Amino acid sequence: MEVEIEASEMEVEEQQPIPSSTKKFGLKDYIQTNYGDDYVFQIVPRDDWTSMAVSLSTNAVKLYSPMTGQYFGDCKGHSSTINHISFSGGSNQHVLHSCSSDGTIRAWDTRTFQQVSCVTAGSSQEVFSFSFGGSDDNLLAAGCQSQILLWDWRNKKQVACLEESHVDDVTQVHFVPDHQNKLASASADGLICIFDTNGDINDDDHLESVINVGTSIAKVGVFGDSYEKLWCLTNIETLSVWDWKEGTNEANFEEARSLASESWTLDHVDYFVDCHCSGGDNLWVIGGTNAGSIGYFPVKHKGTAVIGPPEAVLGGGHMGVVRSILPMPSMQSGTAQSQGLFGWTGGEDGRLCCWKGDDSQVISRSWISSTSTLAKKVPRNRKNRRRCPY
């Protein structure tokens, strides 16, 4: 049963002073996805924003409306932790992909909630991340236990196994937008590797460069006008920014949590959830407290490296660690702007919280700076290269 509760029923924590010249917003409502100790792991949108998928610690994925919170149904089939989910693009937006520690990458038809395809990495493997790309848009890459596996998704044939570049779990794989033959991988061994996936792929001839971060990598992402930059969050909560083309470090924040904590009046920042990019070189690191408050901290990575005061704070919605954040299109392209929706968050309390710019429902600890560039995005006329292999 899905439970939806209005923000007025939430217990509000101690007030935080709201900066002058700010746009106020607050908790619109929240959904309790499950009862008990189930976690929300990840929230991802369909391209047309008619639905969003939410992966849970129950090894299931649930589908909701991002505009209303209406529950649509769930996809069940994985027998272990779901590590990554993503919708297809183009004409196959109804297809959702998921990978799991059960060693499979599955495709689901979200109209029927049924599995339509499954690729197996092996019974002894865990799949932590996947990405579709390649110069012909025909490759499916998966990050596994010290290996990167690649298939031609058109015939499900495995075309490569890269096993010499990493010595620990490959936590992230990303085909680089606008450089679709380039594959970036990141691992618990502290290395980020860049591969050229053209031709007969192998470790010896196709490993182009290696970046040594020095500690176990949790998440990486690509940004910049030409997608030439990488941000990197580690499992010890450090942040760094790199130019992957040059292999150079632009900024290194070894004390990122302390720097973020010093810039606001709330509790110490205990962890980082993710990074947010609104286009160009704009970058924010999203930090949270164990009590459930989160902030968008702007990152200056050119010249003197600085983590600035938060340009948005969300508080009073979660009672535990926040695991995922989904900015709505009002943060990206304006399609939800008329509804004033800021986004959704999910956490270890099993809640999905919806945040909205509506002064009548403002929780006192939630605000966004009126001078923030969070809602701005550099216009791009780029073809959507995501494909559906099923």
Automatic annotation (TrEMBL):
Lineage of origin: Eukaryota, Viridiplantae, Streptophyta, Embryophyta, Tracheophyta
Species of origin: Gossypium barbadense
Record keyword Coiled coil present: no
InterPro entries (UniProt xref): WD40/YVTN_repeat-like_dom_sf (IPR015943), WD40_repeat_dom_sf (IPR036322), WD40_rpt (IPR001680), WDR89 (IPR039328)
Keyword NAD set for record: no
Domain of life: Eukaryota
SMART domains per the UniProt record, alphabetical: WD40
PANTHER family cross-referenced by the UniProt entry: WD REPEAT-CONTAINING PROTEIN 89
Renumbered ranges of WD repeats: 75-118
Entry-linked PROSITE patterns: WD_REPEATS_2, WD_REPEATS_REGION
Keyword line: Repeat, WD repeat
Gene3D superfamilies per the UniProt record, alphabetical: YVTN repeat-like/Quinoprotein amine dehydrogenase
Protein's recorded name: Uncharacterized protein
